[in-house]
């Protein structure tokens, strides 16, 4: 029983790192540093070429 409890406890830290959500935040600026309103941003996962667009 102690071995099972130890194994579950040891794996808990590893398993919590496997999440499918995250956050990306920032601002879009032009060459002069001014904010650019109303832009569309595309995020592309290079390995699968899956894209997500935010308007």
Structure explained in plain terms:
This protein has 55 residues and is of the alpha+beta class. The chain has 1 helix and 2 strands, in the order H-E-E. It has a two-stranded antiparallel sheet. Strand 1 and strand 2 (50-54) form a beta hairpin. It is elongated.
Brief summary:
The chain is an alpha+beta fold and 55 residues long.
Measured by DSSP, the beta-strand proportion falls in 15-25%
Kindly provide the radius of gyration, computed on alpha-carbon positions and rounded to a whole number of angstroms.
20 Å
Mean pLDDT figure = 80
Number of helices: 1
Low-confidence runs (pLDDT<50, min 5 residues)?
none
Write out the strand line-up for the largest beta sheet, numbering strands in chain order: 1-2
Give the N-terminus to C-terminus distance in angstroms. Answer: 53 Å
Which secondary-structure class do the elements indicate? alpha+beta
Shape designation: elongated
The description of the largest β-sheet is: 2 strands, antiparallel
The tally of beta strands, per DSSP, is: 2
- Amount of helix: 25-40%
Order of helices and strands: HEE
Please give the structural blueprint.
Blueprint: H1 2-15, E1 41-45, E2 50-54
Antiparallel strand pairs: 1-2
List keywords for this structure.
single chain; 55 residues; alpha+beta; two-stranded antiparallel sheet; 1 helix; 2 strands; 25% helix
